[in-house]
Amino acid sequence: MSEIKNLKENEFGEMEGEVYFNAINQNITVLFEKEVPMDYVEKQVEYLQALDEKVIQKMCYYADLFRKEEMEAYPDKDYPEGMDKINNPLELLDYFAITELQIEMYANENVKEVRVLNLSGSCDWDEENGIQWLIKEDEVVYTGAYDGLGIWDSHYEKNIRFNYALRD
Predict the structure, then answer these.
(1) Quick one: which of 44, 69, 73, 135 could link to 117 by a disulfide (CB 3.0–4.6 Å)?
(2) At residue 21, what are phi and psi to the nearest 5 degrees?
(3) What is the pLDDT of residues 105-114, one digit of tens each?
(4) What is the rounded distance in angstroms from the CA atom of residue 161 to the CA atom of residue 159?
């Protein structure tokens, strides 16, 4: 049984619906091309629903690296009160919103069973660009400004300047 509600084709020819993301207690948009098999879509949505708290902590940790660098680079920008006093990366949950899950067709049959997430949203420290996370099998492999990256791309894995998940 699908966890996706209000599934329909949008104006861009993609399938669009809503899923409840347990970790943040809210609905987010799910998008995927019509060619992506529904059983694969449902498998990735199930992965989202079962996302381990440790993954959420890593997402926040890398987002915090992103926030700190932005605030250092643009100290005169008007940031929300308290954002400069974050002690625990989980406090960042008050300063960003995860709004979308993009499910992409698997690159080939060999990776069809790999659990992956391509999440994006907004963040108070980079309102113009937003934020994106790519996750493979509970490893956050990309965190940075939203750049429309795909989970099966490889160039994000090498770009330490823009990928905060490589700075550990």
Answers:
(1) 135
(2) -100, 105
(3) 998 888 899 9
(4) 5
